[in-house]
Design a protein that fits this description.
By secondary structure, this protein is an all-alpha fold. 74% of the residues lie in helices and 0% in strands. The protein folds into 2 domains: 69 residues; 82 residues, Tetratricopeptide repeat domain (Serine Threonine Protein Phosphatase 5, Tetratricopeptide repeat, Alpha Horseshoe), CATH 1.25.40.10. The longest helix has 13 residues. The relative contact order is 0.07. This is WD repeat-containing protein 19-like.
Length: 153
C-alpha cells in the first residue's frame, strides 16, 4: 500500500485474518484519501465508527445504516438521521434521532411529517422536554384543540 500498489495491498490485507493489520492498512489508505478502501478495511477490522465516518463522507447511507447497530456514537446516528430526513425517510430518521438522543427532533418529525401526535405526546411525557411540549401545544392549537394544547403549555 505504501509503495502505491493499493489494489494488491488491499487484497492481501483482506485475505489475511489479522484485524490489527487491516486497521493499520485502513489508516494508511485514509491518509492517502482512499476512503472507499479504507472504509472496507475498517469495517473488516471491527472499527465500525471509523468505517461509518468514511461512509458518511462518501454519502453511502446504505452502508452507514447497516453499521448503525454496532455504533454507539450519537454523532454518527445524528448525521444519518439528518440524511434520512432530507431524503424523506422519516421513520428511519426518527429511529436514528432517537438513538442519537435527539428527542426534540423525534417529536418534530412525529408531529409534522408522520402525523403521529400520540407517539410524540408519549415521548414528551416520558422525557419531560420543554421544547417538545411547546411543539405539541402549537400542534394542537393549529387543530383548534385548545384543551389538549393547554396540557402542554
Amino acid at each position: 500500500i505504501r509503495c502505491g500498489d493499493l489494489r494488491r495491498g488491499v487484497n492481501l490485507a483482506t485475505e489475511l485474518n489479522n484485524k490489527q493489520l487491516k486497521r493499520e492498512c485502513a489508516d494508511i489508505l485514509e491518509s492517502k484519501k482512499q476512503h472507499v478502501e479504507a472504509a472496507i478495511l475498517y469495517e473488516n477490522s471491527g472499527q465500525y465508527e471509523k468505517a461509518a465516518s468514511l461512509y458518511i463522507k462518501l454519502k453511502n447511507w446504505i452502508k452507514v445504516g447497516s453499521l448503525l447497530p454496532n455504533i454507539n456514537a450519537p454523532k454518527i446516528h445524528l448525521q444519518y438521521a439528518k440524511a434520512k430526513e432530507t431524503e424523506g425517510s422519516y421513520r428511519e430518521a426518527v429511529a436514528a434521532y432517537s438513538s442519537a438522543r435527539e428527542q426534540d427532533s423525534v417529536v418534530r418529525l412525529l408531529l409534522h411529517n408522520l402525523n403521529a401526535p400520540e407517539e410524540a405526546v408519549a415521548i414528551v411525557r416520558a422525557n419531560k422536554s420543554v421544547e417538545g411540549a411547546k411543539m405539541i401545544a402549537k400542534f394542537f392549537q393549529r387543530l383548534n384543540d385548545y384543551e389538549s394544547a393547554i396540557q402542554f403549555l
